[in-house]
């Protein structure tokens, strides 16, 4: 019998911090609230079962009785931070009805009707049938903690879509969806398990790689990892028409499974092909849609976004489009927030994320479910549109797929700092498995970049949008020039701007993530003045 502690899935539980340790001893309660940038409803977590005990906190983006989605059987406990996108298939394979439910109701979980239990409960059932191999069957965006007696599974989805950090302290293992919750100075004991990613600011804290599960035995201390997904190195040769059809079908399903059970979704819209396709498919699903576009005094793509919003608005009732303009100063002031949320220092990645964090923090109202086109350029080689030969393009795509891990560019915390949940249809596992293996001549064709995607969306977008060349978010919003000007204004020589940027980001991380500061404590100008010239 599974005790359901949370049957609501959308858009509940999307971040958590938790510690787990071996039984038989219970764990002392952690009185202090965890250090998390994500904002939401915090609930203490205290659970004891056969072979393990949990103590910590869960955080849900919506007011919720129990924080992250949890399920408990006698010896199995499941805590899922995030959501599954192949519930129906998983429920069917596990013998739980047709599995078509939305996951928002409280169902019996058996029989021939749609499965309506929560994601964590569904996982507990599927685990009972498939064991740890169930992790190879999941399509979702989650960090997962599963205890089976003294055996602990700590896993991320195929993309590491919800970052998960791990720290072993004696008999206990501490886990959190944000590194800062674990990076307490003076609390460093225990050898990290092999096979995990290093984390800046600590010798002992590790990040669980994308598509990986860490398996730790809480009593013996034995540890191993296993892989649940890898980017395909193979390339397929469908006909162009087949490639277009498969792309469209996979994307439609990915967008559909990401829509809220109730309420209106938001799409962040630049007017480029990636986000316009997502907006068009979301609008077509008939749940209403709000599109939002941001710009600064140095640049915007408002006209391109408005063209799409008007086109969709004429076809689907109930669409709303908003433009948000920031001054360059307001944009740059978000730099500490971007590092605080992303927990990385890569200058290129922060340049992409800065305008998006600034935008998410300006989205008002109750917590939103935000659809983004982020990530499309990685499997399709969109950032390498100037690559002149197909082998070069394919090499660059393979390189990007081999190096995305640990960059946290799709972390939910980027929007969770403002209480929102983001979701990335192009990094749906099935979409990625459809796009990535296409031979390069379907990604770049007739001199057109992201050809297969443009064709797949041609009937739902204005012809001008389908043709429109790519402009990166950092270019369209003026972020690149704003950052350059900032460092030049602080006396950095033009040939040292890049190096200075890297130093500033490292220093921000060390202060905010590894150190105890909060973005509110950091006036950016003073902070930059304090750095070595
Ligand atoms: P870009 O593709 O321009 O933007 C990513 C998403 O952010 C868009 O699809 C859109 O949903 C949103 N967005 C962009 N600009 C605006 C705007 N002005 N207003 C509202 N929403 C907007 C970088 C990039 O060029 O972003 N991201 C790439 C590649 C990442 C590289 N990473 C890697 N190699 N590991 C991407 O694939 O999205
Ligand atoms: Mg893009």
Task: Describe what this molecule looks like in 3D.
The chain is an alpha+beta fold. It has 19 helices and 21 strands. The protein has helices spanning 87-94, 119-130, 240-256, 273-284, 302-315, 328-332, 335-342, 347-360, 377-380, 390-403, 413-416, 429-435, 440-443, 451-456, 463-467, 473-476, 479-489, 497-512, 524-529, and strands at residues 3-4, 13-22, 41-49, 52-60, 69-72, 76-84, 140-148, 151-156, 165-169, 172-176, 197-199, 202-207, 212-217, 223-227, 266-268, 289-296, 319-326, 369-371, 421-423, 444-445, 448-449. β15 (266-268), α4 and β16 (289-296) form a beta-alpha-beta unit. The radius of gyration is 23 Å and the shape is globular. The chain starts with a strand and ends with a helix. Residues 1-14 and 101-110 have low confidence and may be disordered. It binds arginine-N-methylcarbonyl phosphoric acid 5'-adenosine ester (IOT) and magnesium ion. Arginine-N-methylcarbonyl phosphoric acid 5'-adenosine ester binds next to α4, β16, α8, α9 and α16.
């Amino acid at each position: 019998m599974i005790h359901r502690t949370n049957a609501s899935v959308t858009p509940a539980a999307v971040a958590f911090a938790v510690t787990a340790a071996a039984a038989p001893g219970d764990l002392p309660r952690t009185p202090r609230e965890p250090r998390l940038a994500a904002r939401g409803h915090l609930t203490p977590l205290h659970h004891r079962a056969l072979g393990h005990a949990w103590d910590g906190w869960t955080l849900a983006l919506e007011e919720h009785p129990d924080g992250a989605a949890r399920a408990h059987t006698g010896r199995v406990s499941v805590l899922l931070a995030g959501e599954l996108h192949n519930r129906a298939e998983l429920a069917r394979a596990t013998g739980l009805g047709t599995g078509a439910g939305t996951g928002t109701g409280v169902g019996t979980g058996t029989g021939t009707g749609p499965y309506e239990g929560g994601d964590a409960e569904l996982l507990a059932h599927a685990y009972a049938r498939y064991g740890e191999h169930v992790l190879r069957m999941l399509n979702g965006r989650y960090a997962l903690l599963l205890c089976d007696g003294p055996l602990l599974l700590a896993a991320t989805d195929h993309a590491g879509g919800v970052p998960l950090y791990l720290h072993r302290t004696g008999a206990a293992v501490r886990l959190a969806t944000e590194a800062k919750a674990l990076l307490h100075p003076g609390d460093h004991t225990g050898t990290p398990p092999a096979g995990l990613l290093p984390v800046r600011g600590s010798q002992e804290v590790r990040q669980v790689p994308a598509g990986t599960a860490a398996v730790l035995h809480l009593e013996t201390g034995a540890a191993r990892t296993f892989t649940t997904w890898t980017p395909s190195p193979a390339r397929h040769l469908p006909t162009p028409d087949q490639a277009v059809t498969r792309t469209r079908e996979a994307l439609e399903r990915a967008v559909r499974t990401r829509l809220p059970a109730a309420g209106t979704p938001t799409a962040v819209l630049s007017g480029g092909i990636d986000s316009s396709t997502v907006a068009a498919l979301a609008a077509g699903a008939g749940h209403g849609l709000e599109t939002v576009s941001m710009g600064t005094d140095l640049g915007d793509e408002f006209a391109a976004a408005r063209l799409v919003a008007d086109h969709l608005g004429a076809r689907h009732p109930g669409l709303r489009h908003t433009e948000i303009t920031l001054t360059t100063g307001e944009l740059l002031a978000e730099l500490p927030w971007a590092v605080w949320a992303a927990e990385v220092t890569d200058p290129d990645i922060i340049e992409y994320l800065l305008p998006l964090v600034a935008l998410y923090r300006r989205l008002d109202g109750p917590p939103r479910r935000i659809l983004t086109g982020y990530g499309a350029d990685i499997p399709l080689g969109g950032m390498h549109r100037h690559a002149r030969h197909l082998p070069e393009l394919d090499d660059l795509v393979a390189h990007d797929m081999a190096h995305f891990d640990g960059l946290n560019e799709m972390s939910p915390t980027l929007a969770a700092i403002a209480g929102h949940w983001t979701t990335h249809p192009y990094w749906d596992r099935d979409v990625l498995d459809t796009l990535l293996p296409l031979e390069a001549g379907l990604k770049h064709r007739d001199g057109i970049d992201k050809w297969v995607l443009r064709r797949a969306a041609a009937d739902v977008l204005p012809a001008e949008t389908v043709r429109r060349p790519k402009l990166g978010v950092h270019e369209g919003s003026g972020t690149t020039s704003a950052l350059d000007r900032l460092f030049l204004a602080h006396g950095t020589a033009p040939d040292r701007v890049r190096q200075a940027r890297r130093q500033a980001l490292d220093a921000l991380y060390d202060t905010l993530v590894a150190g105890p500061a909060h973005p509110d404590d950091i006036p950016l100008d003073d902070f930059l003045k304090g750095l070595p010239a």
